[in-house]
Amino acid sequence: MTAPTTWRFNFYRMWTGQFLSGITSAIVQYALLWYLTIETKSATMISLATIIGFLPGIFISPFVGPIIDRHNKKWLMIGTDMLTALAALVLAVIGLIGHTFPLWMVFLAMFVRSLAQTFQYPTLQSITPTLVPNTMLTKISGQIGAFQSVQMIIAPAVAGVLFGMFDINYVILLDVVGAIFGSATMLITRLPERLKQDGPVHFWQDMLAGWTLLRKNKGIFQLTLIGALFTLIFMPAGAVYPLMTTQYFRGTVAMASIVEVVFSVGMMLGGAWIGWRGAGKDRGRALFGSILSVAVCGILSGILSRDFTGFILFNILNFFFGVGVPFFNAPFMAMIQERFAPEMLGRIIGLTSMLMNLAGPLGLVAAGPVADRFGVNMLFIIMGMGALVVGAGMLLLPAVRTIDRQPRPVPAEEVPKS
User: What is the Cα–Cα distance from 125 to 340, expressed in whole angstroms?
Assistant: First the structure.
């Protein structure tokens, strides 16, 4: 068991490695997208790459959970890091030898990266409550969200600079460096002994056991469905952010980049606030406030004037939109970690991830036709109105409205507090 005075050092050391691994991985991901953009000049190919990124999360997430729950999480993290590094190394070597690589190899490498992340996300989230005191889970989720927002700010800019200065093959090798950092810190992280489940993995039975447990916790289950519905209505607007700038406001690519950075800065500050102050005693209010902020910002964004003043106001709304997002994501993940035993968390997070990932592409399918028919700004109005409906649903569902006042049937085991 982790000593009371060392849990912070143990945890943050692990996450430092994961942050370095994550930022190098994000840089390589953006560089590969730049490569596809330059080589193919095809929106279809970019869309195909995006869909490939979703596939493991949709079809594999439910089956990942049983593996995570029944195997050594530390070695799962190291193994998936090494798998990502191997895919990057093979791609880079082939590119260096042949001075180019076929597109199918780029897609395969992106699929392998997405597959590794499908394992890593629920594994990390199931490790966290074994290292962190229960009372700190919401703050830690906020801090993690802030770090991820920093990655979103830094990675595109760094990828653009490196892609312009160096051959793509050398940029890809950053993935190997990041994987080594992540694996090294994970290797020296002290994980407490947890209850191990005997017997082989039975995917369908184990997944059904996780689904049954998730359904029994009515508040979390209903909140997961709300989150999936929110993802469904958010994705169309989220996918057309660049078009909102370039078409609706008649702006430039540089202006579109500013919008993305402003949103990420908002998310970073929102996550940092939760990491510092938490989300309050009744986190249901934070969840509702997050949905309400999306509703207000979405509707107002869709009715702005199509001039530079409108663009400035769009950035202001976009900032508060970004601030509001962590007030849903961080409490939601903390509630899951608190209410389910660590040996079941892999399955629970795998199932919730599947529902969220399934909703995303469904929303993306609607984005193009709606934007072409009614205008890109209409997607923001639809998002805002949909968020109002989702918020009303939260208020009408007692299990969600009072989620922080309900008993926790399967609380995660506490670790000593420092």
Answer: 12
| 155 and 257 co-located in one domain | no
CA nearest to 382, candidates 285, 237, 262, 257? 237
- Residue 254: which domain range? 216-407
Q: Are 199 and 94 in contact (CB under 8 A)?
A: no
Q: Are 145 and 267 in contact (CB under 8 A)?
A: yes
192 phi and psi angles, rounded to 5 deg: -70, 155
* Segment 3-25, tens digit of pLDDT: 444 788 888 888 888 888 888 88
Q: How far is CA 163 from each of CA 104, 171, 254, rounded to the nearest angstrom?
A: 20, 7, 17
Which stretches in the chain have pLDDT values below 70?
1-5, 41-44, 46-47, 50, 57, 193-203, 239-240, 253, 360-361, 364, 366-368, 406-418
Q: At what angle do helices 308-324 and 253-277 cross, to 10 degrees?
A: 30
CATH of the domain at 29: 1.20.1250.20
Q: Put residue 335 in one of left, alpha, beta given phi > 0 → left and psi -120 to 50 → alpha.
A: alpha
Task: Establish if 198 belongs to a structural domain.
Answer: no
The pTM is what? Answer: 0.71
pLDDT tens digits for 314-323? 999 999 988 9
